[in-house]
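User: My advisor asked me to double-check a structure prediction for FAD dependent oxidoreductase domain-containing protein before group meeting. I don't want to rely on an old file, so could you generate it fresh from this sequence?
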Amino acid sequence: MNKHYAIIGGGINGLSVARQILLDFPEAKVTVFEKENKVAMHQSSHNSGVVHAGLYYEPGGLKARLCRRGAELVQQYCLENDVAYDECGKVVVALDKEELPRLDAIYKKSLANKVPDVRMLTAGEIAEVEPNCIGVSALYSPRTAIVSYGAIAEKIAEEIQRKGGTIVFGRKVSNLTEQLNKITVHFADQDHYETTFDYVVTCAGLQSDRLAANSGDIATPKIVPFFGQYYVIDENFKSHVKGLIYPVPDPKYPFLGVHFTKRIDGQMTIGPNAFISFGRENYDGKTFNLSDIYDFLTYKGFWKFSSKNMSAALRELSTVMSQTNFVAEAAKYVPSLENVSCVPATRGIRAQAMESDGSLVDDFVIRKQGNITHIRNAPSPGATSSLAIAEYIVREVMTHK
Ligand SMILES: Cc1cc2nc3c(=O)[nH]c(=O)nc-3n(C[C@H](O)[C@H](O)[C@H](O)COP(=O)(O)OP(=O)(O)OC[C@H]3O[C@@H](n4cnc5c(N)ncnc54)[C@H](O)[C@@H]3O)c2cc1C
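Assistant: Sure, here is a fresh prediction for FAD dependent oxidoreductase domain-containing protein from the sequence you gave:
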């Protein structure tokens, strides 16, 4: 008999998993439950849009493997489905000699991860790639690209429906229960009936810890939301940057740092910074979600993380409080943009898993609990990796006894 699969979450990962099931098992019944009225309303449409080439990730880890495979699959998907893809290239720039050992470590990782065509640039060579950028040395990844993951998600949603899958919108799942190899999906709204499935994959992004824990999986790691603010720079100055200019990441703070990101629609943005968000889904930054705040304030991991990362957090806070400081951070790399005018763009909010000892979980975490599979951590490069995460879940995790 044909198996019935449920996917919880219509972000790029949930949709990719649903598509992969339909590709591998064309007779399967696949239903995606999404709490919003559209696909990709959260992280999948609030990100930098970069197809990461795999520079930073620990060789041998899931991120390294699935990012490389995912980048190839995203490129192929865009080509085959007429979705815009721009191989604009990226430089990771060291501003002083102190940063060189860290830059060299990234270069070595990129070689170990077999990132195509990466090379080091001298100070003089940086200008050949990014004429307005300064630095003592840079790592150049010409194959790093940009896309709209929101547009890809919409294409995948269309494909799922063409292949016979169903996407049910406005349906928030509260928890799952499994008995005698049948999984019941329970909905938050009591009016909605419960349905049973053979397999369920939860891909709930910012809500992933809650859905997993409510369904009997372990309580940690917990999601702690970190927002990232972007600014769009004045149209007249956007040609000062050709592609993507990134700092050497601060090892004390686990995010990539404020960078210049060319957008697939031609805009040039600066961002994202990284600071605790007073709500998992409050993109305007003006509203507070008390239960989300309560969740992280009562988590001992959050306090341990905060005490270890105070100096980096204060630096980030200065970019939150002042647009001038924000732009100044980025203009260290492109001095001609020191006084550029900018307008705020929508924030992104990262679903970052944190252990109870305060460490941020670096690698992807995908856990199997009976016939339920949970994505518990899929931060950046989670969108780049989405089609490969889907292959991994359907072909390796779900089949694992
Ligand atoms: C600021 C920022 C910049 C980033 N930049 C990049 C980048 O340049 N490149 C890259 O590769 N990655 C990047 N990422 C990471 C990338 O965006 C994520 O890894 C990816 O989008 C995760 O997709 P997802 O489907 O797992 O989660 P999401 O897109 O968050 O989707 C989860 C979905 O689940 C739904 N949901 C949640 N709970 C329930 C429930 N109970 N019932 C039903 N539905 C539910 C939500 O409504 C949502 O639609 C960035 C992320 C951020 C925040």
